[in-house]
Each structure stands twice: as C-alpha cells, then as structure tokens.
Amino acid sequence: MGDTRAPVIVGPTAIGKTAVALALAAHLPVEVISADSRQIYRRLDVGTAKPTRRERQRVTHHGLDLVDPGERYSAGRFAREAVGWIGEVRVREHLPIVVGGTGLYIRALAEGLFVEPRLDPERRRALEHWVGGLAAPDLVRWAGRLDPGFAGGGRQRATRAIEIALLTGRPLSGWHVRARGSGVVTPWYVRLTAPRPVLAQRIRVRAEEMLRRGLIEEVAAVLSEGHPSDAPGLTGVGIREAVDYLHGRRPKESVAEAIAASTRQYAKRQETWFQHQLRGSVLTLDASRPVDELAGEIAVAWKFGLS
What we know:
This protein is an alpha/beta fold.
C-alpha cells in the first residue's frame, strides 16, 4: 500500500482550518481532502463556509459538492471515496492533507468503519416512518439509550444510531470498535485550538459575514427546488436558522445571533471530541497566532517527524 501517513488538521468550526491548509501550500505540495459533512452538499456554499473558487484554484480540494441537499451521505461512503482521492493525489506526487471538523469522517479515515450488514427493507421503512415523527431532542435521547457510546450530534447522526442498534441488535459504537484498524490513512494530527473569547469572536464575525454574502437567498433557492426543510443538507448549524426565518419561525434580525449561538454550542462539542478521541501523534497549536506562522511550524514538524 506504500506510505499511508497524512497530516490531519482538525478543530472546531471557525477556528481557521482552511486558512492554515492554504498557507501550508507555500511549504508543501498539498491537496486537501475535506472531512466536512456539510460541505458535501451542492449549492450550499455560503451556509457551509466552503473554500471560495479562488481558494480552490490555489489548492485542489476533494470532497466538496458531492450530493444534492436531499441526499443522505454516510461516513462510510466518505471513507470509500476518499481512497480514490488520496490515490490520485499520491500519483501526482502531492501530499494529501485531511482538513475538517466532522469527527466521524476523521475516524472513518483513520480507524475504519464497519461494513453495514444487509438491513431488512420493510423494517427499515417502518423505522424511518417512526423516527420521522420524533422531535430532534427525543431522537437524541433514544440514540443515547440504544447506544451507550453515542457521542451526540444532530438528527441525521441520531437516526443512524437508532437504525443500526434496532436493525442489527448491536450499537453503532460497538460496530466501530470491531472495525478499528481498517483505516485509510495513518494520521498525524494537528489540532487547532484557541481561547474561548477568540473563537466566539470569530464565530460571530462568520455568522454576520454569511448573511452579507447571501445565506438567506442561497437557502431560499434550495428550498424552491422542492426540498423539505428537514432535508439532510438543510439541518446543519447556520442553515437551519435561515430555514426558520424563511418559514416565519424567527425574525430576520435574530438570525445572525441564533447562528452564532448554535455554532458556539457545536464548536464546544467538537473541541470535546477532538480533545478525547484522537489516537496517535497530536500536535496542538494555538490558532490565535498568525496563519503563516502556524503553517511554517506544521511544515517543519511534518518534515522532521516532530509532534
């Protein structure tokens, strides 16, 4: 298989992962493998904070714009498709760097995920009908009861945990433990962190910038295609607050603050996950420092095997 090592840049949303990855290209011949479960959705560029077209011209990105907003996409599928992307990058003699904040995608690449057994179609449809009638907090509670290893998350992740537990008789976290060791890459982690006030300020600025760049209009266009408000691509932080406004559930002047509040909560969960779930070498850096300085330190550490 050859050298499977790869830098994996992780951290909470708005910490500056993309900026660091772009700056790293000045030191190493990199291509980015995006490990972000929201940036996979087409036509939701502002709401998912995708790299701009100019940034993608500077550094090639893989894993963006993969499916329509109404389509489900699993961590397992991500890991399978990433095998191809990483192979293409290595053929070009470039260095694949994994960049993202979706813990399950990171785990799928680094540790592997189980191969889903065949699930009874009729039981699955009946379960989907039942789950569809549950409110998000109830879904999360059921997921926690059925899977003691459930680490939290949104509606899609909770639904997945319930589905696997009930249809296979074993919790999803248990399947993951059994599959450990079948990962795609050998990770060399770079964990970006920052003092809470610094991150909160970045989150606030991003929320306001999203609205200035046309978040409301972007989400309205996707809804006009006929997608329901609970479509997989419309349930993410930032986008769901815009959906609430467009459906008359909140005033427009409250959208930016609602996005910032939800994002702060999500970032806190991400930080907890990355603090406790990463296995192997981890280089932890304060992302409040200048981006070029961080990139230079990462490049030196990678070249000399430091961590």
